[in-house]
Design a protein that fits this description.
The protein has helices spanning 11-23, 45-56, 109-122, 146-159, 170-179, 193-202, 216-228, 256-263, 272-276, 279-291, 318-334, and strands at residues 2-5, 27-32, 37-42, 61-65, 85-87, 90-92, 98-102, 126-128, 163-166, 182-185, 206-209, 234-238, 268-270, 296-300. With 339 residues, it is of the alpha/beta class. The chain is elongated and about 65 Å long.
């Protein structure tokens, strides 16, 4: 449930409510809006109900409202205003459409630096690249690990682009925090609840990707794990769900963008590279994602996709990425946004 404080509530009154909640063995999560403060209460349902009437009678409280959705802290009921997630000098959740670009996997220093320079010149706001690569086959390229993280950090120093890269376990999480600006929790780990809790405790910005078999509710509940640990710097990513057709790698569920934005205050971006698996489809789906209201895109770009060590067929050349950036700027302008 949530406690909605009166617009005139004092700091002491707000702190008194938080103490009452904590003394009852529950967790209090504070959301400060433009006009009023909302306190989310998480914990045992029976204890919350016992506390409800007492809180309703407390000074400074306007009302106590139950949250009917199974996800609490990520919901629009808890926070009506959109959350803005800050990653370096980049802000998700504003009128700007944030474009993250870079190779699927970090393969060499030369490859990363060349790609970072190219995507920066075309207007990308952030750099992506996998140092740890979860692959279906154990014999496929698994990434350069810490060496790859060092190349990404060097590329950031060269271009000024903040870096996002994936971590798959607690050990990798510690390394990624040392080198990157944002942690990606990939689709395969969306329901790795131990990793989600660790990511929440890190207080580092998180990019959370939807699993290929996950419902929208399951994605939001995965985000809830992170927020419940006190980390509200979370960006959701739609990257395709498993379908029955073999013409695309996945089915890119663009309807999830407005649905997520209606249900949650967290920013939502789209991955058209993983979502389609074919570079020729990345452009049309990127334009469609922007038109659907996405807060950003994450796009795979490689200097030589035909020589890539992973997912070459879905990566754009530098020239194709530059052309795509020009196209999505036009779409963004048409709906009153910018890239």
């Amino acid at each position: 449930m949530i406690v909605v404080m009166e617009p005139s509530a004092t700091k002491d009154q707000i702190e008194a409510i938080i103490r009452r909640v904590q003394e009852a063995g529950l967790s209090a999560h504070v959301s400060e809006g433009v006009t009023r403060t909302v306190i989310g209460i998480v914990g045992d349902s029976h204890t919350k109900e016992l506390l409800r009437q007492s809180l309703e009678a407390s000074p400074g409280v306007e009302k106590v409202v139950p949250i009917l959705q199974p996800f609490k802290l990520v919901s629009r009921e808890f926070r009506s205003e959109k959350t803005v997630v800050q990653v370096g000098n980049v802000r998700f959740g504003t009128d700007q459409i944030v474009v993250i670009a870079g190779p699927c996997a970090v393969e060499s220093r030369e490859q990363v630096l060349a790609t970072a320079k190219a995507v920066k010149a075309s207007g990308a706001s952030m750099l992506r690249g996998g140092a740890f690569k979860p692959r279906t086959s154990p014999y496929s390229f698994q990434g350069l690990e810490e060496e790859g993280l060092k190349y990404l950090a060097e590329a950031r120093e060269m271009t000024g682009l903040p870096v996002v890269t994936e971590a798959m376990d607690a050990r990798q999480l510690e390394l990624v925090i040392q080198y990157a600006d944002m942690i990606q929790i990939g689709a395969r780990n969306m329901q790795n609840y131990t990793l989600l809790r660790d990511a929440g405790r890190s207080r580092h910005p998180i990019l959370l990707k939807r699993g290929p078999g996950a419902t929208i509710q399951e994605l939001l509940l995965a985000a809830e794990y992170i927020l419940s640990e006190g980390n509200y710097q979370v960006v959701l990513c739609e990257r395709g769900i498993r379908g029955f057709d073999n013409y695309t790698r996945y089915t890119l569920d663009l309807s999830a963008v407005p649905v997520l934005q209606q249900l949650s205050h967290l920013p939502v971006i789209v991955d058209p590279s993983q979502g389609t698996g074919r570079w020729k489809l990345v452009g049309p789906m990127s334009r469609a994602a922007v038109a659907a209201g996405a807060d950003g895109l994450i796009i795979e770009v490689h200097p030589e996709p035909d020589r890539a060590l992973s997912d070459g067929p879905q990566q754009l050349t530098f020239e194709n990425f530059d052309r795509l950036m020009r196209e999505i700027r036009l779409v963004a302008e048409a709906i009153g946004r910018y890239v």
